[in-house]
Design a protein that fits this description.
- The structure is a single chain.
- The protein has about 190 residues and is mostly helical.
- It contains eleven helices and four strands; from the N terminus they run H-H-E-H-H-E-H-H-E-H-H-E-H-H-H.
- The strands form two sheets. It has a two-stranded antiparallel sheet with strand order 1-2. Strands 3-4 form a two-stranded antiparallel sheet.
- Helix 2 packs across helix 3, helix 6 crosses helix 9 and helix 7 packs across helix 8.
- The protein is globular, with a radius of gyration of 17 Å.
- It binds calcium ion (3 copies).
């Protein structure tokens, strides 16, 4: 199997888009990549293993839900397992893709049921998962309703035609226009 890893070996260049965060992002990706290689001699990872590998990054919080959503975003053919090819394809978008490609990937993550729209509930689920993962140590003064307030603000800005759902065009347009949304949503820091 070793040839396979070599074949798909990628150099984990730091993201040049978010310079200040690039080092920690790179480190996370390297750990995940190594974890994948070690845990999955078969070249395929299931959701449980993925969660275990992922929880190493956030020992202070509960990353179960976020890892679940992340797994579904990597599992592009939705067959319940992420192959090394799926994984490397996702990584290469996140590491070397254009902003547009990265936003597409993020949209897919937020669109939990993959129907092409992000609802307020979906955004809230992701946001709650992120807050859970960060843990109380990171945000000691976090209020219970913080994720909901966050979502309200983003949703108002993103749902341009006010039809209650965010389309890919609305998502990309508002993320590109508003750096604040992009930063606050931690799209690229937390996407993986
Ligand atoms: Ca798959
Ligand atoms: Ca959806
Ligand atoms: Ca809309």
């Amino acid at each position: 199997m070793r040839w396979k890893w070599l074949l798909y070996d990628i150099d984990l260049k730091p993201l040049n888009y978010w310079k200040p965060r690039a080092n920690s992002q790179r480190k996370k990706l390297q750990i995940l990549y190594r974890g994948f290689k070690n845990e999955c001699p078969s070249g395929v990872v299931n959701e449980e293993t993925f969660k275990e590998i992922y929880s190493q990054f956030f020992p202070q919080g509960d990353s179960t839900m976020y890892a679940h959503f992340l797994f579904n975003a990597f599992d592009t053919d939705h067959n319940g397992c992420v192959s090394f090819e799926d994984f490397v394809m996702g990584l290469s978008v996140l590491l070397r893709g254009t902003v547009h490609e990265k936003l597409n990937w993020a949209f897919n993550l937020y669109d939990i049921n993959k129907d092409g729209y992000i609802t307020k509930e979906e955004m809230l689920d992701i946001m709650k998962a992120i807050y859970d993962m960060m843990g109380k140590c990171t945000y000691p003064v976090l209020k219970e309703d913080a994720p909901r307030q966050h979502v309200e603000t983003f949703f108002q800005k993103m749902d341009k035609n006010k039809d209650g759902v965010v389309t890919i065009d609305e998502f990309i347009e508002s993320c590109q226009k508003d750096e604040n949304i992009m930063c606050s949503m931690k799209l690229f820091e937390n996407v993986i």
